Amino acid sequence: MPSTEAVRVGHLDTGVDPALASRVERFRTVDRDGLDSRDTVPSDPHGHGTVTAELIIGAAPDAVLCSASVIEDGNIVARILLGLDWLAACGVGVVCLPLGLPSRTPALRSAVRALVERDVVMVAPIGNGGAGAACAPGCYPEVLSVGASRADGRVAAFSGSAHGEDGGCVGPDVVTQGVEVPVGGRLSSGTSAAAAQVAGVVAALRRAVPHASAGAVRRALALSAAEPAADQRHRVRFGTVRVDAALAELARHPSGGEHLATGEVGFVDPRLVALLGRTAPEARVDAVLELTDDGAAERVARGRRAVRLGIRPIVVLRDRAEAVGALLDDPALIMASAADVDRTLWLR
């Protein structure tokens, strides 16, 4: 029997309009520097988050949102990391990340993996860069990546894609309509609009088959997708989402799923190195570090303006450039990233 309990959907975007407050169980504001966050009333100065929230709710009328404002300004990487850490404690079964970073950002992938390991389905757009272009986190194998199709089912020209060494499409996993989608009395286009709808579908599937694993949900959507036309196979891995077919597949096979890929190790963000090279030793620098264990993370954070994540031994910190540079030689360091990116896209 379907569950009577609402599925919580994590939603990290620009926020949510107060008019949707009745559908938001918790709302979090992450400060610009990514070093502080707090529960607040819903707000959305940009509007993008309100659109994606409405699309999630439209596809999953019984879902409730745990939403946080993490973009468009400030230290975007740090803000998203704090948002994911907060969502891990909210009991979400689905997370929608309708955003895109132009760089691979291993610390973000590590945090995404941490939620997947907690049986959460992570959904993100592949990006709006067209064939051969893909954004993070939509390019991560741990994420259910979503592209946009037109009303006739063809993949939209702007919808991104990623390809393996053999030339085969490895992302997006699925597509759904992302061109002129009706929402809130207007039309919205973009892969984030498509991803929000798929996140709602995932929430509906998890409510209908509450004992199904996150991996089984992903597998059901993949196996039930309508195969693309021959000339579209380089644009989508599995095909177009079919909700009823996915539900039938999930009911038959509610367990199992994909094995997690291995995360990146030993990465030092060249932008962080460049930043340290042009910054005076005593000037403050923001950085994100992942360490080997919680003890090492606590040691690095101690005495600094810093936040430790609970889902991974990741530290978001602000310290003197000289001190941050010294941490890059710490034997417990796994990876180091800048706290911001050169530019971040909220995928319209």
UniProtKB/TrEMBL annotation:
A Pfam family that this protein carries is: Peptidase_S8
The UniProt transmembrane annotation reads: none
The record ties this protein, via SUPFAM superfamilies, to:
Subtilisin-like
Active site positions, chain numbering: 13 (charge relay system), 48 (charge relay system), 192 (charge relay system)
| Coiled-coil features, chain-numbered ranges | none
Keywords for this protein: Hydrolase, Protease, Serine protease
Residue ranges of the Peptidase S8/S53 domain?
6-232
Alphabetical list of InterPro entries matching this protein: Peptidase_S8/S53_dom, Peptidase_S8/S53_dom_sf, Peptidase_S8_subtilisin-like, Peptidase_S8_subtilisin-rel
rRNA processing listed as a keyword: no
User: What family does the entry list?
Assistant: Belongs to the peptidase S8 family.
The name under which this protein is listed is Peptidase S8/S53 domain-containing protein
